Amino acid sequence: MSEASRLPFSQLVLASGNAGKLAELQAMLGNEVEVIPQSRFVQEEVEETGLTFVENAILKARHAARASGLPALADDSGLAVDALGGAPGIYSARYAGGGGDQANNAKLLEALQDVSDDKRGARFISVLVLMLHAEDPTPIICEGAWHGRIMQEPRGSQGFGYDPLFWVPERYCASAELSYADKNRISHRAKAMADLRKRLGLS
Ligand SMILES: O=P(O)(O)OP(=O)(O)OP(=O)(O)OC[C@H]1O[C@@H](n2cnc3c(O)ncnc32)[C@H](O)[C@@H]1O
Ligand SMILES: [Mg+2]
């Protein structure tokens, strides 16, 4: 029996509009199930009104499941910086008011300009939520964290979001300097996905 046949579904909608995230999730799941980006079914994104990663991931998964009629997987993620009391956290994508990755990174560097290296600890968090349908009362919820430090200036060109500013102690480089495959082995999202795979009986 193949791995895929153990899953209760053969297609899965990825409830994200973030191209970087979509590529990572697709690479992690593509052998087991046909993954379809939500843009094939719906253009509008749901408002992320929750106060937790879990709430926002559920909102996104439900939205995509409703629009597609298929099981949906959402990721709500972000960067929690120790010296900023966990900010930007759930507001990571909107940190600089919708100005995009570069504006977010510039704002983060400015917020930390007087903070010394030993106090620049941070972690990426990813919460993955899988809902079998829009009214699924028992979503599967998995979480992963990735600890590192915020650098003084950007490095690297891989990845997305805050990757150029995130120092990865176990590789001694910025996250944006990691190969795509290596990031997908060690990141917050990879850890949450490992948990999800276990919960689905895939590994
Ligand atoms: O909501 P969706 O449509 O999935 O896409 P998004 O980009 O808005 O995603 P989030 O609301 O979950 O916001 C997460 C933000 O945190 C940052 N982030 C999350 N994971 C990251 C990673 O692996 N590398 C770099 N930055 C990351 C990045 O800025 C994201 O925009
Ligand atoms: Mg978002």
TrEMBL record:
Enzyme class: hydrolase
The protein's role, per its UniProt record: Pyrophosphatase that catalyzes the hydrolysis of nucleoside triphosphates to their monophosphate derivatives, with a high preference for the non-canonical purine nucleotides XTP (xanthosine triphosphate), dITP (deoxyinosine triphosphate) and ITP. Seems to function as a house-cleaning enzyme that removes non-canonical purine nucleotides from the nucleotide pool, thus preventing their incorporation into DNA/RNA and avoiding chromosomal lesions.
Bound cofactor: record note: Binds 1 Mg(2+) ion per subunit.
Catalytic activity, reaction form: XTP + H2O = XMP + diphosphate + H(+); dITP + H2O = dIMP + diphosphate + H(+); ITP + H2O = IMP + diphosphate + H(+)
PANTHER family with a match to the protein in the record: INOSINE TRIPHOSPHATE PYROPHOSPHATASE (PTHR11067:SF9), INOSINE TRIPHOSPHATE PYROPHOSPHATASE/HAM1 PROTEIN (PTHR11067)
InterPro entries: dITP/XTP_pyrophosphatase, ITPase-like_fam, RdgB/HAM1
Residues bound to substrate: 16-21, 77, 160-163, 183, 188-189
Protein residues bound to Mg(2+): 47, 76
CDD domains, sorted: HAM1
EC number: 3.6.1.66
Cofactor(s) demanded: Mg(2+)
Keywords on record: Hydrolase, Magnesium, Metal-binding, Nucleotide metabolism, Nucleotide-binding
Stated family: Belongs to the HAM1 NTPase family.
UniProt-recorded name of the protein: dITP/XTP pyrophosphatase
